[in-house]
Automatic annotation (TrEMBL):
Alphabetical list of SMART domains matching this protein: Resolvase
Name of the protein described by the UniProt record: DNA invertase
Record-annotated Resolvase/invertase-type recombinase catalytic domain positions: 3-136
PROSITE patterns: RECOMBINASES_1, RECOMBINASES_2, RECOMBINASES_3
Record-annotated active site: S11
InterPro entries xrefs: Homeodomain-like_sf, Recombinase_CS, Resolv_N, Resolvase-like_N_sf, Resolvase_HTH_dom, SSR_resolvase
Gene Ontology process terms (BP): DNA integration
Taxonomic path: Bacteria, Pseudomonadati, Pseudomonadota, Alphaproteobacteria, Acetobacterales
Origin species: Acetobacter pasteurianus
Length: 193
């Protein structure tokens, strides 16, 4: 027997599932999985359980598209995986579903737009890096420590009474950053405390 299974997500503990739950129940969902997780958070344990529970012929129902995916490419990936498994998808607010031919067409237009967006981002990133390299710089973050600071730190660390942790605190960086900029420093017994 084909089931309509609902999935609801709120971002914080302060938010409530009531609106989504009511809409999903009204849409005929007998089971509803609920996650409290930021949209950017990839860890959504209830969604994982929901996806495992779905069988060919079932339909996954969400209140709104943004409840399922944390980005358009992520949403497209989830729905494509469902489609390959013979599972339908329906978003109540946007009135999008992948059970009918027309619904599949609309969703595939979304998928094409997501792929286009990824290509544009990739092109802009490559163009930006090329422009930076043409000016003699490399991409990425600026180093946390300048050359003068590195020289000062090396001079300080020659003194066996000065702890690496104290120098790191003085320059506002971690010990790992010091090791990275100054080179490998043999651990001194009192630095281990």
């Amino acid at each position: 027997m084909n089931q309509r299974i609902g999935y609801a997500r709120v971002s914080t503990q302060d938010q409530h599932f009531d609106l989504q739950r009511d809409a999903l129940l009204q849409a005929g969902c007998g089971v509803i999985y609920e996650d409290t997780a930021s949209g950017k958070n990839a860890m959504r344990p209830e969604l994982e359980q929901c996806l495992k529970a779905l069988r060919s012929g079932d339909t996954l129902v969400v209140w709104r598209l943004d409840r399922l995916g944390h980005s358009l490419p992520d949403l497209v990936q989830v729905v494509s995986d469902l489609e390959r498994s013979g599972i339908g998808f329906e978003s109540l607010t946007e009135k999008i579903e992948t059970v009918s031919a027309a619904g599949k067409l609309v969703f595939h237009v979304f998928a094409a737009l997501a792929e286009f967006e990824r290509s544009l981002i990739r092109e802009r990133t490559h163009a930006g890096l090329a422009a930076v390299r043409a000016r003699g710089r490399s991409g990425g973050r600026k180093p946390k420590l300048g050359e003068k600071q590195v020289r000062e730190i090396k001079a300080l660390l020659r003194d066996p009474d000065i702890r690496v942790a104290d120098v790191a605190r003085r320059y506002g960086v971690s010990r790992t950053t010091l090791y990275k900029h100054v080179g490998v420093i043999a651990p001194r017994q009192w630095d281990m405390a």
